[in-house]
Amino acid sequence: MHEYRINRGYRALINASLLNGIGNALYNIVFVIYASTLPFKTLAVSLASFATLIPTLLMLVTGFWADRAAQKTGRMIIARVLQFGLFLLLALLIQQPGSLLIFLILLAINVVSDILGQYANSLELPIFRHLIADTELNSAMGFQSATQTTIALIFQGVGAWAIVLLQHNFALFGVINAVTFLAAALVIAQHRQLLRSAEPKPSTARAQTFHASWQVLRETVRTSPFIGLSLILAFLANGLATSIDGLQNVTLLRQPHYWLGNYGNTIALLSIVFSLGLIAGALFSQDFCQHLSMLTLISLVLLGAALLGVSFLLNWGIWAALVLNFAMAYLLGKINPRFSSIMLLTVDADHLGAAMGAMVTVVMLGAPLGQAVFLGIANAAGPALSWAIFALGSGLVSIVALIFSRRVSDPSLTMQPDTL
């Protein structure tokens, strides 16, 4: 909060990110509700869940091009303006009758917009790194994470409530999202001189090929075996965990007795509870988790995922799912800022976009396989079999993570709190 008050450049990036987050939080929940109203609702909800992975898988590409960009501030503005145009087009198309073709076009628009968003985020990284001192990096990232999840928490609930109040006017929400992208572009444009002054100077060390981008990550892993092991376990975990939203959405479609009011309210409440867990985990740093290694925390997250699968198999009810979602998110709220801070302090500013993009690409490579397997089984044979396999896999990876947590030292436990 202190850095937000005194650092104009950091404040501008945070404000633009918040405006973008408002539109995304509103639209993401509304789009799932839109998919649930289509004649092919199970397929539509599954495709909508799977499509969210595509931009993340392309982070290596967007990070590579962001590192090569000479005028990062200008490119950020262009990316937001393009997103604005795409969602105006979406607002027009979503008014058409709900055919499979129209749905796929809308899905493609959303994916392209998210890719542009990832590109803009990669452009911000080196500017962010130059604006914040090392000693303030962890608190600044924690504040950024807390504000983003708070926005998601508030506006996911607002979206689920407002779409019913506005009689499912999906086009209006497309326009609102477009306006938030434009507003984010205007905030960056207003502070463009300040942000340009924080851009890193062109360096001959900048990665010029995709191979060089992978080399940056490989060198990072070589100097920190802990990061390498974390990437492997995160790869396995993501093959499982990224299926949770999709599996929950498909399961709730088929089991109305889980609903709290209606389908939209229920999935919104699950998202809100998850966001609350992320915020609480980030804010309450002095708790029982502060002396646990990151690998132990990963193991506990996967244990929660296994129990979530069991809860749906044994019909423990929606309240059990809400509690387990909160618990998993609480632990993730501690893992994400800690790991991101280590990466920001380990990698030089010229290669941040490529290194972070390569890291996320490796982590997320397991996600499409997991989504295809678990959502495929849920569509073909029903959610019960999918949850059973999911629970077994989560439990096994949890045990593996726990074993390695006893054998590999965690550098974040030996670093001073103000430099994490």
Automatic annotation (TrEMBL):
Report which superkingdom the organism of origin falls in: Bacteria
Per UniProt, the keywords (alphabetical) are: Cell membrane, Membrane, Transmembrane, Transmembrane helix
Membrane topology category: Multi-pass membrane protein
Name-wise, this protein is Major facilitator superfamily permease
InterPro entries linked to this entry: MFS (IPR011701), MFS_trans_sf (IPR036259)
What species is this protein from?
A: Schleiferilactobacillus harbinensis DSM 16991
Q: Where in the cell?
A: Cell membrane
Transmembrane intervals: 12-37, 43-65, 170-189, 226-244, 264-285, 292-310, 316-333, 354-378, 384-405
PANTHER family in alphabetical order:
INTEGRAL MEMBRANE EFFLUX PROTEIN-RELATED, MAJOR FACILITATOR SUPERFAMILY ASSOCIATED DOMAIN-CONTAINING PROTEIN
The UniProt GO MF terms for this protein read: transmembrane transporter activity
A single GO CC term for this protein reads: plasma membrane
UniProt KW Transmembrane keyword: yes
Listed Pfam families: MFS_1 (PF07690)
